[in-house]
Amino acid sequence: MKSLKNILTIVLGVLFVVFGLNGFLHFMPMPEVGPEAGAFLGAIGSTGVLFPLISIVEVAVGVMLVTRKFVPFALVLIFPILFGATIFHATLDMGGILPALVFWILNIVLLVLNRSSYKALFA
Questions:
Q1: How far is CA 106 from CA 4, 35, 49, 99, in A?
Q2: How far, CA to CA in Å, does 68 sit from each of 13, 88, 101, 117, 122?
Q3: Residue 56, SS3 per DSSP
Q4: E strands of 1-123, at which residues?
Q5: Mean of the per-residue pLDDT values for the chain?
Q6: What is the pLDDT at residue 35?
Q7: Whole-angstrom distance, CA of residue 109 vs CA of residue 44
Q8: How far is the C-alpha of 17 from the C-alpha of 2, rounded, in Å?
C-alpha cells in the first residue's frame, strides 16, 4: 500500500508541475472552448493575477508531492483549484471534465491514504 501511495503521489505531483509550468511556458496548445467559456477565461485572464497565481500554486503543490514533503498540506492546498476547475468544466466546457475528474480521483485517494494526518482537524 505504501508503494501505491508513493506512486500516486509522484504521478499527481508530476501532473501538477507540468500543468503549472504550462501556465507560464505555454508548451501545450489551448483547447478550443465555447463562447461562454472563452468569455469567462478572457475575463479572468484580463486581470493578469489569477492565472499566474493558479500556476504558482500548481507548481508548488507538484514539487511538494514529487519530493513527498508536506503531502497532506499540498493535497488540501490544491483542493480549491480542483474545485474551481471542475465547476468550470461541468458548467462551461464539458470537453475537459475527464482530466478534471482524474485529478479529483487521485487527490481524493491520496487524501484517504493520508487520513491519519488530518485527525487533529476533526478532534
A1: 11, 30, 27, 11
A2: 9, 29, 22, 14, 23
A3: helix
A4: none
A5: 95
A6: 94
A7: 30
A8: 22
Q: CA 1, CA 27: separation in Å to the nearest integer?
A: 35
pLDDT interval class at 113 (50, 70, 90): very high
Collect all residues with Cβ–Cβ distance below 8 Å to 85 and sequence separation of at least 6: 96, 100, 103
Phi, psi of 62 (to 5 degrees): -60, -45
To which residue does cell 503531502 refer? 71
Q: What is the dihedral of CA 69, 70, 75, 81, to 10 degrees?
A: -90
Q: C-alpha dihedral over 80, 61, 104, 6, to 10 degrees?
A: -150
Q: State yes or no: pLDDT of 1 exceeds 80.
A: no
Domain ranges of the chain: 2-26+34-115
- pTM for the whole structure: 0.92
* Distance from C-alpha of 33 to C-alpha of 97, rounded to nearest angstrom: 12
What does the radius of gyration of the chain's CA atoms come to, in whole angstroms?
15
Residue with the three cell numbers 482537524: 121
